[in-house]
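Lecture 7 notes: from sequence to structure.

We start with a single chain of 559 residues. Read the sequence below before looking at the structure.
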Amino acid sequence: MVSTLTPSILPPAESLSLAEQVAQMVVVRTTGHLFDHEIRYPAWEATQAQLHRYLQLGVGGVILLGGSAAEVGVRSQTLQSLSAIPLLMAADIEEGVGQRFSGATWFPPPMALEAIAQQDLPRALELAEQFGAVTAQEALAIGLNWVLAPVVDVNNNPANPVINVRAFGRSSQLVCDLTRAFIRGAKRQPVLTAAKHFPGHGDTAVDSHLALPLIPHDRQRLEQVELEPFRAAIAAGVDTVMTAHLQVPALDAQYPTTLSRATLTDTLRQDLGFDGLIVTDALIMGAITRTYGPYEAAVLAVEAGADILLMPVDPEGAINAVCEAVAVGRISEERILASVERLWRAKQKATSPLGLPPASGHAWEHLPPPPIQLDLLAQPSSRQAAVAILRESATVQGRLDLTGLNSSDEPGQDNIVVVEDGVNCPFLGRTASAIALPQQYGYRLKLIDSQGCCQFPDPASLRPSLLQLFIRGNPFRGSASLTEIADAWFRALLEAECLQGVVIYGSPYAFEQFRADLPEGIPYAFTYGQMPEAQTQILSALFGLPDQDLAARDQDFTD
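Now the structure, written as tokens:
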């Protein structure tokens, strides 16, 4: 049975106890799967028993990761039914709902729109708006009411390991334009959006999941580059702003931005005029926990001006720490109440009105919404929007010569696929085109990764090869070691004159690096996407397959 609480009957914020008010400011993380044994990140994701405890405390929201869209639909409805006050249900779905939850539409990374904008800005803006609209529609269809997107960082540092292709681009003006378009599309649905990561995480070379990056720029530079997209997002009506864990001396010489009153209150609230929800980036991240500890970090974030504490290491401990800070006078009760009132305004927008009982009082006249609205997921028009971004942002030069090649022959050439983690790779199943399509032409698979299948080339055993490189910046890992392995294979195949063609999936920076050393006449291709649909599209173009062959080999990238 779904909760009957709705925005119109939220309890008055001041009627909650202090502990209940503070609990509303906490968002915890769990898996989108239905069972504890499917949890993939035990240190980050709450078990069923832990979730029940957090809901009893009255936490304000849950962030989900993993599982199918159908599972998340069931999961979100179950969690709402267990909560006395409607929850914010969030997900990091910067590349559409299908990025995190199978069955929905998976878009290429936002930076793909930059490549389109360089040729046709109006077209890029049109696609960005569709991107936002589809993401919001599919989120709502499975019970998610808080889209943790768009990323409005300006990725002007190619070595950035954590933002990279998650950003819309490398120029502040273009990021502003695409941000406005994405939010405009998302606002078609009653979901919350989030501009992140304030005050701008684009010009860093350190992953804030692991350590605290430094932004050395002066205030004038921040105003001109990093802050401008946040102004655009606020003007476009973004609902929430997520902080970055950064050291920015031009704003605060003492505290990192997430814990800085000068940054969150003075700059974001007062200078930029933002009156929505300020949410911290995950407080479990190393940039914060290694220096301040879980409890002091929570208190400092609230003191700084944060309304939502996202993923504290110990949610119950964080609630107690903030309550203790109020008791000793570090934080006023009015400060807590102000955050809860902002939360209430957000929940009034994001909570379904279907919970209202009918005027007649007959329960049968008011059926709850289904846990998932399958007809709104991966609609043809939605998938076409994703395909259009893939196709229009791709680069293909030359064609691979397939003359006389077929799978019935003894393999005489290799399909060398280099990927971060071959075991836990979500886009390289047995039927993925990067594996299956070359196999149809007699290529033998050689899978190499930077984990258990790490190997460097033996020049004596090299054969004519197609080299496929899956490289993009990934939080916690970056791409340095993977690029080193890929470069070793690239150069060995070149020296042995065995390189038939190169395909790069993900990073335009890696593509530019390899293309600069590629001799004329060797075919190459680049796509921003890594999902099966991107593989099908780019390989079909490189192989010179006609449209009907592409359609025949099209793998459902939402599988």
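The mean pLDDT is 90. Keep this in mind for problem set 3.
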